[in-house]
Amino acid sequence: MIRCQHLQWGPSGQPLTPPLDLHLPSGSLSGLIGSNGCGKSSLLKIIAGLQQPLRGRLELGVPRLGGVAYLVQQQALDRQFPIDLHSLVSAGFWRSPLSRRERQARLCQVLDDWGLYGLQRHSLQALSGGELQRALLARLSLTDAQVLLLDEPEAALDDQGQTLLWQHIRRWQAEGRTQLLVSHDLASLGQRLDHALQLSRSGCRFAPIRQLIGQRSPLEQVA
Ligand SMILES: Nc1ncnc2c1ncn2[C@@H]1O[C@H](COP(=O)(O)OP(=O)(O)OP(=O)(O)O)[C@@H](O)[C@H]1O
């Protein structure tokens, strides 16, 4: 669950949008859309607790530590950081109650799921954009967090990667996790999601995504 009351965020004294009131129930899957610089990534950082809001209240129903997982845009990562793919993905076990043996089995499964087998010892620099994105998603797959914040998760993924991504998103939805997903691919979101939050300087609007992007359903098109 994510509940915002009169929430505002942005640079000090310069809120990016009018106050946001929003309730995303547990298990919901919602898009977060809007033009470049309107404040989408900043809102995810506020929800993740990485930035402070300017004003308003935020309620998550879970503790931030362990309860919220945030998939960052990969350009926010330092590719020079001296770790390999194995270490990056394994960070998803943080606070996990699994035994060493269980972790090993789960890691193998997740690496296999995301098509990363054989790349465990590659440094971050040696990964392609799509491989790094799969590694970040594999790390997310290891967490038990109930709130998942996904910032452009389809970035750099090929068709097969995008299919895998949406299989996982549907699985997380079936597990009752709350997901908020930033994307600029409105056509794809329009086919896959029911609702989205649209941010802009003039206002925030949570509505059926087809209304927001001006798309009509196939039935409406026939009618
Ligand atoms: N650390 C910061 N200091 C000052 N301004 C910032 C900071 N981070 C972001 N901003 C500004 O806040 C605004 C919103 O940025 P944000 O990254 O949230 O936009 P966005 O909607 O995610 O954009 P995009 O679609 O381009 O990813 C931008 O104008 C940006 O320049």
Automatic annotation (TrEMBL):
InterPro entries: AAA+_ATPase, ABC_transporter-like_ATP-bd, ABC_transporter-like_CS, Metal_Ion_Import_ABC, P-loop_NTPase
Highest taxon of source: Bacteria
Single GO molecular function: ATP binding
Keywords: ATP-binding, Nucleotide-binding, Transport
ABC transporter domain segment(s): 2-222
Transmembrane segments: none
Pfam families: ABC_tran
Family to which the UniProt record says this protein belongs: Belongs to the ABC transporter superfamily.
Protein name as annotated: ATP-binding cassette domain-containing protein
